[in-house]
Amino acid sequence: MSTAASDTTMSYIRKHYFATPLNSAISVLLALFTLWVLWSLFDWAVLKAIWGKGLNEECRAHEHGACWSFVATRWRIVLFGLYPFEEQWRSALACLVMLAVAVLSCMPAFWSAKRLPILWVLGFATFFVLMRGGVFGLTEVTERDWGGLSLTVFIFAAVCLLGMPLAIIFALLRRSELPWIAKTMALVIDVIRSLPLLSIMFTFAIVLPFVLPDWAIGDKLYRVIVGYAIFFACYQAEIIRGGMQALLMGQEEAAKALGMGYWHRIGYIILPQAFRNALPPTINQFVITFKETSLVTIIGFFDILASGRAAAGTADWSFATIEMYLFVGFLFFIFVFCLSRYGAYLERRMAVGSR
């Protein structure tokens, strides 16, 4: 750090935290309290913790530290849920495939309207084949046996894959020049956005089979994904529409004057800039979507949160509830933190929000 930057930082600290004797006393007390909390957490989570596999009796006898033996012993249930033990390598490989897709999506070489959808479709198809099996000599594992992290990743990827094209369609219909189309789409979006996500999941999981013909019912998991994708699309459509409204009207008018058709104007002028303008809320929407996948546990799916409860729900490990929630929370934190940091990088690269 340069001398000028250091002086600026010290000036800021003196001005905001040590300007008066009272401010100085409060700042010192809060700093000491923060250090005490951090030291207590470090002491509990590291210094006094129990490490190793299968040491539940030692954890019961030693109550003053964290029992990370729970994670070492029960991590398979948390990550893979009900997936057959001998086939769990497929679930792990499927998650790695989607991780690779996410990493490749961050590379500018794939930032095109053709490459990015192809990458996600191929990656998701590979993920599904690995999880479901029944082809290429893989044992078939039905959706009712899926669970853990892989189910959470599957729901999130499927919702985004279905929801993003729907969001673009909804946004275009919302700004249609035909009033009856625009008003109808606005009503649909506003109604769905006013409903809790959980009520939509319940509707698609439980109510919808009563009004659909037998051939259209399908599996409960896919009905929930469709309902979640529609919910995601309605929110994302308003984000995209906001990005479109931020554009200068003269750009579309100039494109019309040059003789460009509707789809060329949308594909080459409107949508690229709209997505650029809507980048911060879009990243936020992806983060919210990933976190809200945990709601599926309420309607009977064995996602990572339900798998964690099952892992800590036995008599041998019932005392490790805190460690279980910390482990699951850490997995969520890794994804959300990486996504938020990547979003911040994109904002700096594209100078979004600097105007």
Question: What does this 3D model show about the protein?
Answer:
With 355 residues, the protein is mainly alpha-helical. It folds into 2 domains: 3-44, no CATH class; 85-350, MetI-like fold (Orthogonal Bundle), CATH 1.10.3720. The chain contains 16 helices and no strands. Helix 6 runs antiparallel to helix 7. The model has no long low-confidence stretch (mean pLDDT 85).
- H and E order: HHHHHHHHHHHHHHHH
Strand content: under 5%
Which CATH architecture of the largest domain?
A: Orthogonal Bundle
Q: Number of folding domains?
A: 2
Rg, nearest Å: 25 Å
- What is the overall silhouette? globular
Termini gap: 27 Å
Bin the helical content: over 70%
Number of helices: 16
Structural class: mainly alpha
CATH topology call of the largest domain: MetI-like fold
Question: Major β-sheet, in short?
Answer: none
Mean pLDDT: 85
CATH class of the largest domain: Mainly Alpha
Number of strands: 0
CATH superfamily of the largest domain: MetI-like
Low-confidence stretches: none
Family: Belongs to the binding-protein-dependent transport system permease family. HisMQ subfamily.
Subcellular location: Cell inner membrane; Cell membrane
InterPro entries: AA_ABC_transptr_permease_3TM (IPR010065), ArtM/GltK/GlnP/TcyL/YhdX-like (IPR043429), MetI-like (IPR000515), MetI-like_sf (IPR035906)
Transmembrane segments: 21-42, 89-111, 118-139, 151-173, 185-209, 221-240, 293-312, 324-345
